[in-house]
Amino acid sequence: MPKSENRFQFVSFTERIARVTADVSTWYKQVSNAAEDESTFFYETLIKCGELEGNNEFLNDFVKAIPVEQLRTYTQVLHFQKKLAAELEKHLQVENSSAFAILFQLVVALARDIRDDFYQYMWTLFTAITNALERSKHDPEVLEAGFVALAVLFKLQWRHITKDMRKAFCYFIPLFGSRENYMRRFAAEAFAFVFRKSNSVEKFVAFAAKKAAKSDDGFLLDGVAELYFNTFKGVSHQFHSRAQMQFELVLKATLSIEDETQRNTAVEIVDKLIKKMVAFTRKEHSKPITDVLLKFLDLPSSDKRKESVTSLARLLTTWIEYKRGAVFQDYDRLFTIVHKIVRENPDRSESVFLDFISLLLQLRSEAVDKNGQRTKEIVESVLSAQALNVTLAVNFVTTLTDVPGFDVNIMPVVGQFAERVLNQANCARSDEVVVLNLYARICAKRRPISTLDLMQHGSTSRRPFMDARNHITVREHVIKAMDSLDAGVDQLSLELLVPAVAILPWLWRSGETVQGVERVVDILESILDDDTSKFGPRAGAFALICATTALLIDDKSLASIKRDRFLDFIRRQCCLESSVQLLELVQQRCADWQEMDAVERLKETAEVLSSAFLSPHSVVRRAALGVMAAFPVQLEANDDEKNGGQQESVFDVLLEAESTDLTIQNYRHRLMLVRKLAHGSHRKFMPIGLDKELEWIPLKVILAQFYENFALLWPPLYAIAETYARGMPIDDFWTLFAPILEAANERAASSAMSVDTTTAGDDEVGALLEQLVGTNSARPADDVTFRLHMWRLVSRFADVAERRTRIISPMLLKLAREEYKVGESSGRSTEDLSATIKEPVTEEVVEEEEDEDEEKPATRKRPGRRSVTKALVAILDTFAQFQDPKSVYLEPQIAQLYDELLLVPDETVQTAVMKCIFTYKHKFLTPYKENLERLVSDKSFRDELVMFSIDTQDSAVAEEHRKEFMPVLMRLLYGKLQTHVASAAIPRRSAVFRFLAGCQPDELSVFLNILFSPLRTVASTGTDIRSMCETIQSDFDVTKVVALRKIKRLAHVGEYFILLSKCTG
């Protein structure tokens, strides 16, 4: 049968549940209105279900308890109604019943037969049904039958229920507050029909909010919101005909609640409702709901309306945030209403309302307000409020920087606001800082440092974006703040200095002479000469801002500062991003730029920037290469020069490569540039008179490319980096590469254990500096992946690495012992019994700890088990290629490590270790290489156990090999025995023990010694029990006890051996 015709497809629980509905409107017409042949609904349903489910013992028990043959007429059903209701309630309480779906149908049938008389049993049977649903919440058929039954009951009894909606809601609370989303949805669909019929919507809304406010979690809130949504929902993305009227009642009741806590809860419910409605509808169908929101927003102002406007602003924000306002229709009316509110109530200063105005202006000001006049008036009205908090106002303006016409329409208003704040008689210093920070953030947005082409155009790059005549007061405070440097620099002065320096160039018009450049240069020099860490980790960023400001004002303002001072500053800053960018910006403008020999200056700079070329961040490498590319270097004559072409230095090539974006379209161009610098080919790009430090730069930058998260780039980079390992003198290569490898191991191992939280972005000044210079102190480096790449690279030139095992052997041992913790991996872990055990271990097979490779934003975790395993396997792959393993440095310890790693329950590790062991070319192993490889593979393990016999009568192992071969095989089998897959544990254990039945006694003792080695610290052989107990009592350490799960597992293994001994005895 073709795949397209396959009707038997697996449907997940989620998919099945998604198809179920309890909406009465979708299926109620299919329910017949009269029973056939004048019999009762109850009798018909019972007979029909009896025919279909004749062997259901739970149904048979129910049938035996009622007089079936006496239920044919309505009179008989009315007579036995109490007994029927009681028996239904009783059987609905039976645990694990398979007749729930049938009983639900019988409840509905009874309700249809006795009609109004059923209401006296309504809530008793309702409770029984909901309890049954809770017990069967993972059975789609029962869930569908149960909620359909509830919906029919509500359809039949709606006249009674609507008289006491609050009582009905109380019974529904367990369903509305369920943790399962589909339970809340079913309950809402069933209840929605009754809610539409209710005449007491406002009382119900207040009551539901009161109940929801008392709930400990948000499930009941979501359940009530789901109820409202199903009440208003129609078909084809449209709303019900009564939706507008009922939503108006819901919103009116929500805004009228007196108790603040309950009102906030009600608003949160409506907010969730808005999210559901806006995701459901389309723009052309949204008018009934948005008209209600706009109607309430446009009501006459009063004192009581303040909370209402705030709540409505929150709800409208939720609506227009979805798809950037694409579902909202009448923006012109919304603008008019908002303009009216801020004009009539200028003192409104709630953050929610300001956020709403900000979002509205960002999304639709250009479309609705063509000339920007209304936008200007709205902002002016907001900022003119006397009671407006300065911080709130600043945050409001900061969000508007992307509004079209911001420079022309909004900046003059900002100038008026700043003048009013700064000219106050009692203007607080904090207000002054907040205002200057606002200007600095606006400048960072409108004129980012990264877009200022100062290298090419200098001071001509200063193109003011605002009319300076509207900001005279701010200019005066900026000059005053810079003059405060005479009193010394502290935290308070920095809060003013940083924004003051950043905004200085933009407070004068193009034709005016900017004042204060001398003070900026003084500040820069004080930063460069700071040996006391007065400016802390923010020194580099602040120095870059000062240099940028000075050069925007005057190209020659930094000519008096010698280049050596910048180099000393970079040394102290350890090549941080901003400090390297600072050198790139200023070095050609320094007074001593032309004084020194170019080659000597080049060598000195390369030494200072040594760590920058291997930086994890491309922006640092790019800035460092920009510094180097600026030097006028002389290259050896090559074909380009002979043909009249322009020569490119190695720094030009690398700079162009780093400047190429890593995309699917452009990554090949970066690779092409890097390939030019493969070892041997790179010499024609190197300057004359180079030394080792300069020759190492291409390799450092190439290795740093492995920090880039772009997988297509990595394979070609391996080949390019390999040319240096094979082409460079081995001592020169390992002099550079060994520290890189060691540092990669250390950073990967300590990435979670020590996280530097004292970054420049932890305070307001640091955050502002980062925004101004465009850096991110929280940007993590993927040291774990870089370490893996380095070891995979080493495996490509294993023959070279074999000559330097003094370097890599200790690294292997350290990784295996300290990070991989090989003892714990082979099941020899201990635990601290003094600690509180939160979750007792009950499983016989312990699940493997979850991998922690993935990093969350702004969080650095310890390398996960899988990452460490990959690194270990990469190192073992290198050792597996050695030609003379016995000459490896620390060979005895390496060989012992191989034996321990064979015990690890990891196929990849065992495979890599077996390859390493095969390099010894032992005569007792080589003939069985293929057999061992198949035993290592999980896919062929079970089959090979059957085929590879070790029985003395039909052994595949030669007798002269058994003594040395069997210990290796026993270790391998022990590792396979420690599976982490629970479903495979018992079958694999049985297969291994059947295989061990062919062992000789001395061979089996090897396996037992390995198996019970964790208990040797507790029970030693060769001593009597009394002495052993005394030793345990004196030496027992409760913090280092053999893991209890391990002891339990060994007990189960012991049972197998007892059975095995009986079978073989």
Question: Could you please describe the fold and organization of this structure?
Answer:
Residues 824-863 are annotated as: Disordered. This is U3 small nucleolar RNA-associated protein 20 N-terminal domain-containing protein. Residues 869-1048 form the U3 small nucleolar RNA-associated protein 20 N-terminal domain. With 1065 residues, the protein is mainly α. 62% of the residues lie in helices and 0% in strands. It contains 53 helices and two strands. A two-stranded antiparallel ribbon has the order 1-2. Helix 23 (429-446) runs parallel beside helix 39 (764-773). It is flat, with a radius of gyration of 39 Å. Mean pLDDT is 82; it is low at 27-37, 752-762 and 836-862.
Beta-strand content bin: under 5%
**Shape call:** flat
**CA distance, first residue to last residue:** 55 Å
Number of helices: 53
Pfam family, one: UTP20_N
Protein name: U3 small nucleolar RNA-associated protein 20 N-terminal domain-containing protein
Organism: Plectus sambesii
GO cellular component, one term: small-subunit processome
List strands and helices in order, with pairings:
Elements lengths: L12 H7 L4 H4 L13 H12 L4 H8 L9 H6 L1 H12 L7 H15 L4 H17 L4 H22 L3 H12 L4 H17 L3 H13 L5 H14 L10 H14 L3 H21 L6 H11 L7 H17 L9 H14 L6 H18 L4 H11 L6 H9 L7 H17 L6 H18 L7 H4 L14 H12 L7 H13 L13 H12 L10 H15 L9 H11 L3 H10 L11 H11 L9 H12 L9 H4 L7 H10 L7 H9 L16 H13 L9 H14 L2 H20 L14 H10 L9 H14 L1 H4 L3 H15 L2 H4 L4 E2 L33 H15 L11 H11 L5 H12 L10 H8 L4 H7 L11 H19 L4 H15 L4 H11 L13 H11 L5 E2 L1 H21 L1
Antiparallel strand pairs: 1-2
Helix pairs in contact: 3-7, 6-7, 6-8, 7-8, 7-9, 8-9, 8-10, 9-11, 10-11, 10-13, 11-13, 12-14, 12-15, 13-15, 14-15, 14-16, 15-17, 17-19, 18-19, 18-20, 19-21, 20-22, 21-23, 22-25, 23-26, 23-39, 25-26, 26-28, 26-39, 27-28, 28-30, 28-39, 29-30, 30-32, 32-34, 34-35, 37-40, 38-40, 38-42, 40-44, ...
